[in-house]
UniProtKB/TrEMBL annotation:
Superkingdom, natural source: Eukaryota
Comp. bias regions, Basic and acidic residues: 3-13
Name of the protein in its database record: Pseudouridine-5'-phosphate glycosidase
The entry's keywords: Glycosidase, Hydrolase, Kinase, Lyase, Manganese, Metal-binding, Transferase
Region (Disordered): 1-16
One GO cellular component term: cytoplasm
Biological classification of the source: Eukaryota, Fungi, Dikarya, Ascomycota, Pezizomycotina
Span of the entire protein shown here: 118 to 459 of 1165
MF GO annotations: hydrolase activity, acting on glycosyl bonds; kinase activity; metal ion binding; pseudouridylate synthase activity
UniProt entry tagged with the keyword Cell inner membrane: no
Length: 342
């Protein structure tokens, strides 16, 4: 029989403040078209906990006009939990790390226009380097964690993780989120992949990339990789983490080991907002079937939009609640990591 989990008695050894200092040098010398908000900059210089947030959810996930409200709620949630929100996105050909209310509004309202593109890893440099009309961009997890890692942000919270698409073994549609997590030292709080993705293959890919994968839950209970709208996916989580403090301890231990890979902390949707898997599965399946021929980066937004229509907005409320909860937990993880670093 398994032994009960031990409470950590000792903190890991001190001494990773150097990492922050080195990054801060880059921040001070950064190019002009990478803007850091006054809030985030002062937080960085004071070594306060900062939580990175993505924006593809606002431009290509969550419909207008509620996308702007959600962006504001996310920022409030992060602050209420002791961290500084750093919403990362592209506005008028410039990268923002931390956005003001007006900037968030401008980006959110521009969703759906030709100017506003979904920015994955490979698109980042184009958005600031290209010489056509200035672009806005919502950054995916891949792009967001790239920019976060560059500026020394340790924790990023998001809604759903990209993954291996169904049929990915022949279409090769595998989200850049996964390779980015294999390459970047970042801690990601997310509610899982939608069941329109291939959970098993996504997990295999992350394992090969050396990405730590865990789910918040209770040891001794069955804990699944969450299925985004549902707490279950049918696939067991390889590891269980019981608290934000424990997540931070694992993140800090990875630092001490000089690991260069990402850590994923899945946070299941709060029970009261869950849509049962049995209800979601057929909806998701038919949405996937309908947009089978839409390939590349347009597939995810098309499927998400179809799910929204089919659930008559219920998926939206579930999405809102889970992403807010991720902001809360993400902020707590960031706060705990800072404590270890002191
Ligand atoms: N899954 C969701 N909502 C989202 C996304 C995924 O439930 O908004 C977004 C995230 O920004 C994620 C991106 O990083 O889609 C993945 O897109 P792709 O599959 O094209 O890599
Ligand atoms: Mn894709």
């Amino acid at each position: 029989e398994a032994e009960p989990a031990k409470t950590p008695r000792e903190r890991p050894p001190k001494g990773s403040t150097k990492i922050i200092t080195k990054k801060f040098k880059w921040i001070m010398k950064r190019p002009e078209n990478i803007r850091i908000s006054a809030d985030v900059l002062s937080g960085m210089s004071r070594k306060q906990p900062i939580l990175g947030l993505e924006t593809a959810i606002y431009t290509h996930g969550f419909p207008k006009p509620n996308n702007f409200d959600l962006a504001m709620e996310m920022e409030e949630m992060v602050r209420a939990n002791g961290a500084i929100p750093a919403t990362i996105g592209i506005l008028n050909g410039e990268i923002y790390i931390g956005m003001t209310k007006d900037q968030l509004k401008e980006l959110a309202e521009s969703a759906g226009s030709e100017k506003t593109i979904k920015v994955s890893q490979r698109d980042i440099a184009y958005t600031i380097g290209q010489m056509g009309p200035p672009l806005n961009g919502g950054t995916t997890i891949a792009a967001t964690i790239q920019i976060a890692a560059l500026s020394g942000i340790r924790v990023v919270a998001t809604g759903g993780l990209g993954g291996v698409h169904k049929g990915g073994e022949s279409s090769m549609d595998v989200s850049a989120d996964l390779a980015a997590l294999g390459r970047l030292k970042i801690n990601l709080v997310t509610s899982g992949m939608k069941s329109f993705l291939d959970t098993a293959r996504t997990m295999e890919y992350l394992e090969t990339q050396g990405v730590f994968v865990s789910t918040f839950g209770t040891r001794g209970e069955r804990v699944d990789i969450p299925g985004f709208y549902s707490r279950e996916s049918g696939y067991r989580s390889p590891h269980i983490v019981e608290s934000a403090e424990e997540a931070a301890r694992i993140a800090f231990s990875a630092d001490m080991l000089k690991l260069t890979t990402g850590n994923v902390f899945f946070n299941p949707i709060p029970k009261e907002y869950e849509i049962p898997k049995s209800e979601m599965d057929p909806i998701i399946e038919s949405a996937v079937e309908k947009f089978k021929s839409v390939t590349g980066k347009d597939n995810t937004p098309a499927v998400l939009n179809e799910i929204l229509k089919e659930t008559e907005g219920r998926s939206i409320e579930a999405n809102r609640q889970l992403v807010l909860d991720n902001a809360k937990i993400g902020a707590q993880v960031a706060v705990h990591i800072r404590k270890f670093e002191d």
